[in-house]
Specification:
The protein has 211 residues and is α/β, with parallel strands linked by helices. It has a single domain, classed as DHBP synthase (Alpha-Beta Complex), CATH 3.90.870. It has a six-stranded mixed beta sheet with strand order 7-4-6-5-10-11, sandwiched between helices. The radius of gyration is 16 Å and the shape is globular.
Length: 211
């Protein structure tokens, strides 16, 4: 019999995150709900955990991994003080599906990083995703929960073989909203750069920077 590790939690339910945090710290992969789709969380400081994540997805290790954090303060703990434009975007859209491209400091697996040592990071609108990052004590990865080339998962039943992989612990919070992925922005430049169009229209981001 296959041992499937699933914890069922409602959005408004208090939970003991100790088993999930221990799983992350041991190099495991956790399926977490977000405000769009389910994501795959690992410790971005663990090269072996990041390698396991790429192996699970069948994704080339050349692709950078996005991160999620529990708060803007947790983002700054990992990425340093936000520049003025990034701060305005964060204040307007976090928690929510807007990721900022930022430099990163501290131990982090090389495979997580994009060109120039940056990450795309956000504070998600889903309370369970934020709770996992808060309990873990630092940002975690949040790449979409799916095998490479397959649609992202809105429910655990969409995960197929990923769910029974012995490296995976899943948090079942029911169906997620779906929709477009997070909008990714690099606001360190003038004008800011749209890296990926997504759930929040680019026009709304530009409006937040006016004045």
């Amino acid at each position: 019999m296959i041992d499937v590790r699933v914890t069922r939690i409602q959005e408004d339910q208090d939970a003991d995150w100790t088993p999930v945090v221990d799983w992350l710290r041991s190099g495991g992969i956790v399926v977490v709900p977000t405000e769009t789709f389910y994501g795959l969380a690992v410790d971005p400081g663990s090269a072996s955990a990041v390698d396991a994540l790429f192996d699970l997805k069948g994704r080339p290790a050349s692709a950078a991994l996005p991160l999620i954090a529990s708060s803007a303060a947790q983002v700054e703990a990992r990425c340093g003080r936000l520049d003025r434009a990034s701060r305005r975007i964060a204040d307007r859209f976090w928690p929510g599906p807007v990721s900022l491209v930022l430099p990163v400091s501290g131990p982090i697996a090389r495979a997580v990083l994009g060109d120039g040592g940056t990450v795309a990071i956000r504070v998600p609108a889903h309370p369970i995703a934020r709770a996992v990052a808060a309990a873990f004590g630092r940002a975690v990865t949040a790449t979409s929960a799916n095998a490479s080339g397959r649609p992202p998962a809105r429910r655990l039943s969409d995960l197929d073989d990923l769910l029974v992989d012995p490296r995976v612990w899943a948090i079942d919070a029911g169906e997620t909203p779906g929709g477009r992925p997070s909008t990714i922005i690099d606001a360190r430049f003038t004008p800011p750069r749209l890296i990926r169009d997504g759930a929040v229209p680019w026009s709304r981001v530009l409006e937040s920077l006016e004045g």
